[in-house]
Amino acid sequence: xxxxxxxxxxTLHSYTAALLNRDDTGQAKRLVYGGxxxxxxxxxxLKRHWRMADDPYALxxxxxxxxxxxxxxxxxxxxxxxxxxxxxxxxxxALEPAFQKLVYGEKADKGKKxxxxxxxxxxxxxxxxxxxxxxxxxxxxxKSAEKAVEAWRKDKNFKAMSENAALPGGLAAALFGRMVxxxxxxxxDAPVHVAHAFxxxxxxxxxxxxxxVDDLKHDEDDxxxxxxxxxxxxxxxxxxxxxxxxxxxIANCGGDRDLAARIVHNLxxxxxxxxxxxxxxxxxxxxxxxxxxxxxxxxxxRSLATAFRSPVHHDLGEAVSALDxxxxxxxxxxxxxxxxxxxxxxxxxxxxPPDSGLDRLSLTALATWAGAQVEGTPDV
Length: 380
What we know:
Elements: E1 6-18, E2 30-33, E3 36-41, H1 43-52, E4 68-71, H2 74-80, H3 89-104, E5 118-121, H4 122-136, H5 142-153, H6 158-161, H7 170-176, E6 192-194, E7 197-199, E8 204-213, E9 225-245, H8 246-252, H9 257-273, H10 280-283, E10 289-297, H11 316-334, E11 339-344, E12 359-360, H12 363-372
Helix pairs in contact: 2-3, 2-4, 3-5, 9-12
């Protein structure tokens, strides 16, 4: 296997006394797997933290980065607001509902709650803003503004926005995709596929009783506790799994292999080092990967989650051994021949395939190796 199509990134992360990802009741997200309840971190949570990271390897530090915005207010804030005070109010007020329909669909002018929370890139927003300004400058009243937008949008859609931009939806859409219900032509398939992370062992959690003390309270019959609350805290060793479809990533980068390689390099750092988590001030939920295994191959990806279908103990060495056994079982059965590199804080090494010289690297070296795999990727 010399021309990889997929990168598979497997991780083990440890967190103690944290509440990383909450459900609608404020409790830790969960799932049942192998008959045991597990603590879970959703893929949306993981992707958002990688996308928003303030870090030396943040995606926005990449040369070629294109920003994007996710909101129901894109038209209001990015397209219409720049027109106010420069053109007649009646014309601007007529343009807003017309452009809302263009972007969010026919019912978009019924109020922002009727709109999809949509991700648009800076090139798309700049294109829309330029068209709105062009129309505002050529019409004489509200009615003619509405007609101008209606006549124009019959032939123009999101596809037109991407004609002169390599990353029309921004880097976030190029990595994690997007769905636009008002215009399927605007949909972008995600080349980065992210699984929900889950604990390799049964859930470990407890309710934390805490108080807030009133420092200025003088009632001798009162302990001074002004607020009494409970929150859930969890501990866990989480298995995470990410797949990068390299040809699809290159295509979403406008064919720029160098940009795709730099994205993979930085994403490797982010997956290893950026922690998800709420309650930062009271739990400091920061951790780095205890293990990261990256595989490069041309066959359909497969998760190693089944290594933990039967829960293991909350022990890094035991988890690494279980992962290694599952890897060996896949190798013996399917012989797909992926190239592999890994980092690990565990004393237990990965050995599959045996006698392969599977290199154990630092994160810097591992990220460099992962980025280099893009150069050997076949064209779409």
